[in-house]
Every structure is written in structure tokens, then in C-alpha cells.
Amino acid sequence: MAKRVSLFVTCMVDQFLPKVGLAMAEVLERAGFAVEFREPQTCCGLPAHQAGCTPQARAVGSHFLKTFDDADFVVVPSPTCAAMLGRDLPRLFADDPSAQANAQTLSARVWEFSRFLLEVAQIDSLGARFPHRVTLSDTCPAPATAGPRKLLEGVDGLEYVEMTGPSECCGFGGLFRLQYPQEAETMTQKQVGRILRSGATHVVGLEVGCLLQLRGAFERGQHAVQTVHLAEVLASR
Amino acid sequence: MTTPSQRMVGIAELRERAAGIKKHVLANLDHYLLETEKQVTAHAGHVVFAQTIDEAVDYIRALARERGVDHLVGASATALADEVGALRQEIESRASEFGSYLAGPAAPPDRAASFEMECLLEAGIGVTGASFVLADTGAVCLAENDDFGCLSSAAPKIHVVVAGMESILPRTRDLAVFLRLLSDRFPHHISLLSGKRRDDEMDGPDEFHLILLDGGRSALLADLEKRELLQCIRCGACLENCPVTPAGHPGALTQLLSLPPLAGPFLAASTLCGTCREVCPVKIDLPRLLVALRQDHRLARSGWRTWLFRVWAFLMQRPRLYEISGLMIRSFWPAAWKGQRPATKSFRQLWRERKN
Alpha-carbon distance B328 to B335, whole Å? Predict the structure, then answer.
């Protein structure tokens, strides 16, 4: 019987880029998993956690724990949400050992999409075809990692170009871009410059917030570069 | 037999060791403070514990009065960057014709070398800030960009060293780890100084005073969640690499690294991208601490943001309400924000359609 995988699509994908969720489901099905979507899911609690509103983060985190209580694998198309669920959430229950133990059990079953493919599914090629020149915009909480690059290597027709200079934060940072729009824009423009100089026609990301931030900048600057999530590249034929 | 190159330790392992040494010192600080005092005293130096930087300044002031000293010189105290203000004032207030003189970041770039030398020779007391204090020998390590600290310790009759009490390292050999981690940050003059001039030595001060400064450090030490901040060796790597700083904002790190850490409005000025954590030579989890500090700030005063998150958390625990709110937000999305425009249909809508 096929192994069961639960999608946690994140509130950002749900509301802003649902095609990323669909692409992720398709890739996982193609990899032989039985994919389910649990309707009661909402958000991981990260915005409140980052703002220091711990009681609220804990309440929303508890809702996640309740929703996915008996899940085998929870796969998330976002490194930041995956880090929130896999690393930070148990810490929020420091004063309640049994709740913390419960959170830890589920946290260990939360996987960021690309890591799940490489480490659990152990698949690095899915017969995807994406005949474009592509660069990768690394997502912040993780340092530049080989994983997503390895997955891109297995894509037919894809020409990979590395950005010149280190990839830096794109300036999204959740509430940061609302509170410091000018600073965020300066950071975004820096990253946009690096992407343009790479000569890529498509920039691949793992994080929907960053992709939205970059998409906005490309549209405003009337650049033809397309933003795509890794799942979309792996799902395309 | 291992070759020297095989014995060279990679940066990753050095960071691991440095963090380990710092954690060990912080867990046993009472022991190392006493050990340092014993060793400095054995080298005919004086050790003073100062609760605040003002206490340290008072001590220097009293010392100057007792010894009839008019001129003080101070050398850049990189390791005490935040606290050096009060010292600077004290030194500047004693400025006479030659002026007392504080080298370091605040010094005018065109300062004449001869002026410096005159100050040094006139000065009765030289004040320096130590980067590290070595518990096994009672020596202090001055790590600086120029040689002014080294000279300030050699020419005046009295040398006063100020050091944060967390800057103690157990053994002199630990410098092999820490100086290598500092060395790619800025070019150095490294001085290792212990006690006063001995009879068979050419130069050096007649008196050596080490002021070990608390300045909020013991309170931070008792705070298990934030104790990690005391691992900081004030190298500045996090600030240099923070992407927010060049974008025109001092950023949240400056507040986090103050002693004590300041819970204020700038705390929001970080995307928590984690670059600081990656470059920190002693592996401080700065983003985690930033969030912890934001937490303290929220607990201290709940503003509009807290209320916003209360409403948000209420919705996020009720999937139906969440879905309706999402639909409304997507329908009334301001046209001006079209770069971040939401989708027409949510994922859950599309998923239902896909299944049917």
C-alpha cells in the first residue's frame, strides 16, 4: 500500500499561490504516495511567533497539532513554515512537558518539500521537463543548500545558472516589508539585480513569500523573468 | 604522524570549539573570576570588580586623584564598544592642553602621530579595554586595529585594563581558537600583558589594575534563555553581514547586542533571515534571541499588534471563519498591492474541484 502523505500547504499558498500546492500534490503522487489534504488546516503560527506574540502563536500551533495529530508525514512547501513546525513549535510549550512531548512527536514528522523528496522518498529525478534557463534564489533560514540544486539537475532540458555573489535575503521577512517598506525594497532590488545578471529567464524559489516579493519587483520593473516554485518545476512535463 | 596541514582545524570545527569554551566559561564563571583574581594578584596586579561602568570610572578617577595624575589616555576598547561612552567622557573631561586622548573609532582620522606620542608621554594613566582575560596566567589580551592600546599600556606609569567579566578564557592556549576566528575580521595588533613591569624588564607600567565589569552581565547570566548572548566576542561579523544594515537601517541586532539587551521599537527591523547565525564565530542563535526579546517587549506592553494577533489567532483556529476571511481579503485586495496579489480561488477550493 502506498505511504500516506498529508499536505500542509501553508496559508500563503492557500490564499496567494494555490498552484504551488497542486504542483506539490502532483509530484508526490507521481513519486508513489497517497496524498491527502486536511481541510481544517490554517496557518503554522509563524507570524505571531516572529512578532513575539507567543500565546497567539501557541494557540494556532495547537490547532495545527490537533489537525495533524495522526499524520505519518506532513509535507510543507516552505522552509520557514517547516522550521516553525519542526523546530520552534515544541519550544513554545516549554512550561507544559506533556504538550511539549506531544508537539515534538509531530514536529519530527514535518518535512520541507525538497528535503522530503531527497531524504524520505529518496528520489532525485521524476521525469520532469522544464526547458528554460534557471537560477535558484536560496531561502533564508537555511544556508545555501545542495538539495534543491540536486533536484533541479535531474530536470530534463533545464539549464542551471548560479547567481553571481551570495544570495541574500530578498527583503520579504513577513511583517518586515510592511513595517520597513523602503529597506525591504532596497534589499529586493539587490536580489533582483543578482538574478538579472545571472541571465536566467526563470528564478526558482522554495518559499512563497520570497516568490511574491520578487514577482512584484519584476512586474514593476517590467522584467520578463518568471518566478516559479521548485514544486512547479518538478511537476512540469 | 600528522602533518601540520592535517592538524589545521577547519573553521566549522573552530566555531564549535569556540562556542564550547564560551559555554563552559559561562557555566563556571564564579570559578574563573576567582582564578583570574588569584593569578593577577600573583603577578603584582590589582583586581577590581565593578558593578557598573560608572563604578569603573569612579575607580579610575580616585586612582588619578590619589596619584596626582592629570592626564589619562585611553585606547580603543573594541570589546566594550557600547560601554566606553562614560570612560570617554571621563578621559575627555581631563583634557588639558595636550588633551587626553581616546583612540579608536571616534578618533579623528587625520590625527598626527606626534600628537599621539606627546599625549602618551604626558599621561599618568593609560586605560585600555581587553578583548580577552586569561584565567590561567592573569594576562590580558588586547586585540586592536592600531598599536595605540599597546603603547598606552607601555608608556604611562599606571595601566588600567577594563574587561567585561564574560571575556575570561580558561587557558592561554584558547587564544589559538579565538584569535583565528577574529583574524579574518580585522587586521590586528595583539598584545598579551600580565601584571606590572618586573625588575628585569625594560618597559611596562609600575602599576597594573584590572577592572572586571559586570554592567548587567550577571543578570543576563541568570537568564537561561538569553545567557547565550554572553558568548559574544564583539567581533561585529553579524552586523557587517546583516542585509538590513546596508539597506539604510541600524537594524535590530544593535539592540540585541546592547548590555543589557534593549527591548525597543527597532526589534522589528529584522527579517530573521539567519545570516547572522551563519556567520557568528561562537554560534550564537541570534534570530532565536531576537524573537525572545520581542516576546519580552510584547509582555511588557501590549499594543495594537497584540490585539491584531488576538483577532488573527481567533480566526486561525476556526477553519470556516478563516476561509470566509480569506475570501473577503482576496476580493477586496487593494489594486495598488498587485505585485503580491492573491489568487482568485484558494487552494482548498481548487482541491475540492480536483477531487470531484
Answer: 14
Residue B274's domain comprises 236-300
Task: Say how far apart CA B79 and CA B108 lie, in whole Å.
Answer: 20
Kindly determine whether residue A14 and residue B339, on different chains, have CB atoms separated by under 8 Å.
Answer: no
B124 and B242 in a single domain? The answer is: no
pLDDT at B88: 63
B152 neighbors B100 (Cβ within 8 angstroms): no
Rounded-to-integer distance, Cα A161 and Cα A183, Å: 28
Neighbours of A105 (CB within 10 A): 12
The predicted-structure confidence for A6-32, as pLDDT tens digits, reads as follows 999 999 999 999 999 999 999 999 999
Would you call A118 an interface residue with chain B, using a CB distance cutoff of 8 Å? no
**Are residues A143 and A113 part of one domain?**
no
- Mutation test of the interface with chain B: which of A6, A10, A12, A16, choosing the one with the most B Cβ atoms within 10 A? A16
> Using CA atoms, how far apart are residues A205 and A196, in angstroms rounded to an integer?
15
- The domain in which residue A210 lies consists of 124-235
Question: If you ran DSSP here, which 8-state letter would residue A129 be given?
Answer: B
Of B296, B306, B347, the CB nearest to A13: B347
| Cα–Cα nearest to A217, from A137, A152, A144 | A137
pLDDT at A49: 94
- Selected residues 144-183 of chain A with any CB under 8 Å from a CB in chain B: 168-169, 171-176, 179-180, 182-183
Mean pLDDT of A161-188: 85
User: 567579566: which residue's cell?
Assistant: B165
Nearest to A39 among B247, B329, B348 (CB): B348
From chain A, the residues in CB contact with B294 under 8 A are: 50-52
* Contact residues, B window 289-318, toward A, CB-based 8 Å cutoff: 291, 293-298, 305-306, 309-310, 312-313, 315-317
Q: Is B227 within the bounds of a domain?
A: no
A14/B348 Cβ within 8 A: yes
In a domain, B229, yes or no: no
Residues of A in contact with B246 (CB under 8 A): 186
What is the DSSP annotation of A154-205? TSBTPEE-PPSS-----S-TTTHHHH-HHHHHHHHHHHHHHHHHHT-SEEEE
Minimal Cβ distance to A18: which of B293, B312, B343: B343
Q: For residue A48, give the nearest of B313, B340, B346 by CB distance.
A: B313
Specify whether B197 is located in the same domain as B281: no
The full DSSP string for B183-233 is HTTS--EEEEE-SSPPTT-SS--SEEEEEEE-TTHHHHHH-TTTGGGGG--
B231 falls within a domain:
no
Which of B273, B297, B350 comes nearest A52 by C-beta? B297
pLDDT tens-digit profile of B164-222? 999 999 999 999 999 888 866 665 678 899 888 888 888 889 999 999 999 889 999 99
Residues of B in contact with A90 (CB under 8 A): none
Asked if A38 and A88 sit in the same domain, the reply is yes
A14 vs A76: CA distance, rounded Å: 12
- In angstroms, the CA B159 to CA B148 distance is 13
Cis bond upstream, residue B260 (ω within 30): yes
Amino acid B93: pLDDT: 58
